[in-house]
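Supplementary Text 2. Reproducibility record for the structural model of the 101-residue chain.

All settings were left at their defaults, and a single model was retained for analysis rather than an ensemble. We include the record here because the model underlies the residue-level annotations in Supplementary Table 4.
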Amino acid sequence: MNGELRRVQPTYTIRVAAELTGLHEQSLRMYERRGLISPARSKGNIRLFSDRDIEQIRFIKRLVDDLGVNLAGVEVIIQLRRQLLDAHHEVLSLREELARR
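Retained model, structure tokens:
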């Protein structure tokens, strides 16, 4: 299986995600309510987490535990990170377009 495909394939239940990240299941539910994570849902409405979700949770945990950032700050950091990544992808796309000319 392609490594990138595996990264986004939702495979872990909330219990497994909690074990992998060292957090309580309630913390993961709170992160979801706050919009910090968005796990997929099965047909039975069970949360399913991908490797990418696990990485995001670990990133949040580092911000909170290691840097002392509160969840409001985490929300801002994640939003700024998304904007930065979007801008980076746009610059790469524009460079490719210029190179083709």
